[in-house]
Amino acid sequence: MAPRLPLRPHSEPLAGRQCVSGTAVLPNEGESQRDKQTQVSVIGGGPAGSAAAISALSVGARVRLFEPSTLPRHKVCGEFLSPEIAPLLDRLGLWQSVLDARPSRIAAIQLHFHNRTRKDILPEAAFGLSRFQFDRILMEGALAQGAELERARGPAQPFTTPTVLAHGRRHAASHPSRLFGFKAHFHGPVDDSTDLFFFPGGYCGVNTVENEITNVCGLASWRVLSRCGFHYDELVHSFPPLARRLAPLTRAMDWLSAGPLVFENRLRAEFGPCVFPAGDALSFVDPFTGTGMTYAVFTGASAGRGATLDPSPVQHLLRCRRALARPTRFSALFREVLLSGWGEKLSPLAPVSWLYRATRPIVCD
Questions:
Q1: 255 CB-contact burial (10 Å; exposed 0-12 / middle 13-18 / buried 19+)
Q2: For residue 287, which of 126, 77, 125 has the smallest C-alpha distance?
Q3: C-alpha distances out from residue 1 to 4, 55, 219, 330, Å
Q4: This prediction's pTM
Q5: Is 21 exposed, middle or buried (0-12, 13-18, 19+ CB in 10 A)?
Q6: 29 CB neighbour count, 10 Å cutoff
Q7: Whether the Cβ atoms of residue 281 and residue 316 lie closer than 8 Å to each other
Q8: Which of 24, 27, 57, 80 makes a 20 to 30 Å CA pair with 342?
């Protein structure tokens, strides 16, 4: 079970407050009931920001949700919902909406190297759902529960009221080893497996999402991509196991790309007294783990509740460290092994099921 982030309404309005050197300033007695509510700003309207907004609203806050971009839209994403996300979304009142979108059911995992394939059954069924649909469900949920959407980037630091930072990842400085993500949807035969293809300098994941669409999403170094002129069709067909997997499929959209990417872990970073980071702004997890959307919802819900009930982010950060620190370390180690080309040599030493479990977030009471 996931950590308890109860969503029952608070019995009394929460006192409005401003953050000043880690303390809470209470309102005057003459203020209106609405003014007494805690005002929470959420910067970023993706999954983490929307989850934060819903969580804050559920415990009595007023929420201003800042998002300058038009959402939903297609994004570079593995579009894999790990099993741990179901109870988190259920507490936000959104799991039925996800099921109504008819996500694909994923029962198995396969790891493909140049000359070796490892397969295992997942301990629990996972799901495939496009980021377009996932972002839509969460944003609509936040607005339906009372979040006020502003098409702007949000307030600038230093923050004087509780603020959830859910604005996504930062970009890397130029370097030949920097990494880029890419993604496209395909039409064709589908199955109930998620397939991960590892090649020197990159990897690519293939799984079905809703409406019998296949998502193909990968990550590769600048060196690898520059050799094919950043032509992603050429890249995915240059690795024989992946080319065979894609042979019966037809690409249904233009390739999307993102990067350069930074795998940044800020779980132990210092934040101000009003700042509650969530999603990629807190920790950008390796896409091959399939836990990115679970991380976003978990950290967002924790940040929204914390920003409403506690002027300090300390407890929020402790909760996130307990859940994410170990799988984040394992993921970083696996990434280095896989991108170095050693994955195929070492793959017989560890069962696929063990590698899968080692990268799961520890979201338990």
A1: middle
A2: 77
A3: 8, 18, 31, 22
A4: 0.85
A5: exposed
A6: 6
A7: no
A8: 80
* 314-339 vs 292-309: helix crossing angle, rounded to 10: 160
198: CB partners within 8 A, 6+ apart: 111, 112, 113, 338, 343, 344
CA distance 86 to 334: 26
Cα 60–Cα 277–Cα 11 angle in degrees, nearest 5: 15
Cα(15)–Cα(2) distance, integer angstroms: 28
Tokens 């067909």 map to which residue?
Answer: 237
Average pLDDT over residues 284-299: 85
CB 197 within 8 A of CB 114: no
Task: Report angle CA 292, 288, 355 to the nearest 5 degrees.
Answer: 105
- The number of helix segments (H) and strand segments (E) in the chain equals 12, 16
Q: Quick one: tokens of 132?
A: 């377009």
Q: With b meaning 16 or more CB within 10 Å and e meaning fewer, what string describes 155-170?
A: eeeebebbbbbbbbbe
**CATH code for the structural domain at 18-173+261-358:** 3.50.50.60
- CB 49, CB 42: distance < 8 Å: yes
